[in-house]
Amino acid sequence: MLEWLTENYQTILILAVVAGIIVLDIVYLVRKKKKGGICGSCDGCCEKCAKHHE
Question: What's the domain count of the chain?
Fold first, then answer.
């Protein structure tokens, strides 16, 4: 097991970094959605999006 980890540590490290970025992005989007900053496709369906598109 230890040999496999040492042979693949670079791949594991890159995977961990990418997974961390994805998790942080999801957390950011969820928090923004809860604050009312996102209204779906942002096609002008809410007042905030309408102001954003002006």
Answer: 1
For residue 29, give every residue at least 6 positions away whose Cβ sits within 8 Å of its Cβ, in sequence order, or none. Answer: 38
Tens of pLDDT, residue by residue over 1-54, are 899 999 999 999 999 999 999 999 999 998 888 887 665 555 555 666 655 555
pTM of the model: 0.61
For 1-54, where are the alpha helices, taking DSSP H only? 2-7, 9-34, 47-52
C-alpha closest to that of 53 among 39, 35, 32: 39
Which residue range forms the structural domain that includes residue 47? Answer: 2-52
Rounded CA-CA distance 41/25 in Å is 17
How far is Cα 16 from Cα 2, in angstroms, rounded to an integer? Answer: 18
